[in-house]
Amino acid sequence: MTTSRSAWARDKSKLTLEQQVRYIKDTGVSFNLYSEAEALVFLRDETYFNKITAFGPLWKKDADGRFYNLDFGQLVDLWRIDRLLSQVCMLMTLEIEAWAKEQIVSRCDQLNSEDGYSLVDDFWNSLDKANKKNLRNDLHINADRRMLEGSPWMDEEYLEPLLDKYELDLPVWVLMLTAFFNTLQMFYRFCGRRWHDEQMVADSYLLLDVKNIRNLCAHNNGLLVGLSEAPDEGKLAKHEAFEALGSTGVDSQSCKKQMKQRRMRELLSVIYLYGRIVSEGLQDQEGVLGLVQTLVERIRAKREVFSSNSQLADALQLVADACTLLVSAPSQTTSKDRPLNQRKAHD
């Protein structure tokens, strides 16, 4: 896949829908799978020019700078797959965030050496100046409360009194109510190191990928657009998703090649980590498993549509394989049978 600052560079004049379709056609995109009339309706009713053309760099261009082997229908199908993938990943990352917080609180509850306060104090003292400032902003301490009017944080009646009561003298269970994902990720790693838990430390690095995907989904940015970025060699070392997929029989060389690309690693981190906590007994409250199955079926149904773009087709196939092989229904155990750090708060 090629990398380009903008595959659709043009002047800043506003284009009508008809001009947008004409411009896309002039870049070499065909309209065999999707007619120009259908494209007009699609751009009017479902998405907009920049959203659909953002996938352009996933296709190659000829010496004249025109796309070849790219049909507008392929862009539409990829946009729809990407939208479904974003829905799946958004739900997965929310569950992963809740799981990570529950892991910390449950572990703290079980350790006689932790009182819930010194843990947060020591974390605070371990931070540099910049991260202390970020944590203060997370907690809205020393912030102008007038700027927060209308914020969902201030809509929670229980939250503001907690912040006013504790300020920085927070127990871990209050920190977990108020911390944003960046603080959660740092705190998770701190706890892993403090408790000499190698798995927690390893998971904290996966949480960086989870955070990036969660932010993209929350802002409705295309996930698959990032597959156009150049691979970053040497970044795969002992990635748990790679090892997990290798154990299922997925072609290791193809998988390794795909996972040299940052966005693919981020996506597989989310899928792998979600699949792992589902296998440990997470209840599928949001119907994620059904959406995952729909995503897999859609990718497989469109395999032939993307056959002229082997790199993209292989990337989509790896996502489908990861969903199929790494995400499965939990074993039939009750919350009473599961370890405390594997239970949902609402069990």
What does this 3D model show about the protein?
The chain has a domain at 17-77. The longest helix is centred in the N-terminal third of the chain and has 39 residues, at 72-110. With 347 residues, it is mostly helical. α4 (72-110) crosses α14 (262-279). It has 16 helices and no strands. 58% of the residues lie in helices and 0% in strands.
Please outline the helices and strands.
Layout: H1 17-26, H2 36-45, H3 49-53, H4 72-110, H5 118-126, H6 129-139, H7 152-155, H8 159-166, H9 172-178, H10 181-194, H11 198-218, H12 240-246, H13 252-258, H14 262-279, H15 288-301, H16 310-326
Helix pairs in contact: 4-10, 4-11, 4-14, 4-15, 10-11, 11-14, 12-14, 14-16, 15-16
What is the compact description of this entry?
The chain is mostly helical and 347 residues long. The chain has helices at 17-26, 36-45, 49-53, 72-110, 118-126, 129-139, 152-155, 159-166, 172-178, 181-194, 198-218, 240-246, 252-258, 262-279, 288-301, 310-326.
Question: Main attributes?
Answer:
elongated, 347 residues, mainly alpha
Sheet with most strands: none
Rounded average pLDDT: 84
How far the N terminus sits from the C terminus, by CA atoms, comes to: 46 Å
Low-confidence stretches: 142-156, 331-347
Counting DSSP H or I runs of 4 or more residues, the number of helices is: 16
Shape: elongated
Beta-strand percentage range: under 5%
Q: Count the strands?
A: 0
User: What fraction, in percent, of the residue positions are helical?
Assistant: 55-70%
Query: What structural class do helix, strand and pairing data support?
Result: mainly alpha
What integer value in Å does the Rg equal?
23 Å
Order of helices and strands: HHHHHHHHHHHHHHHH
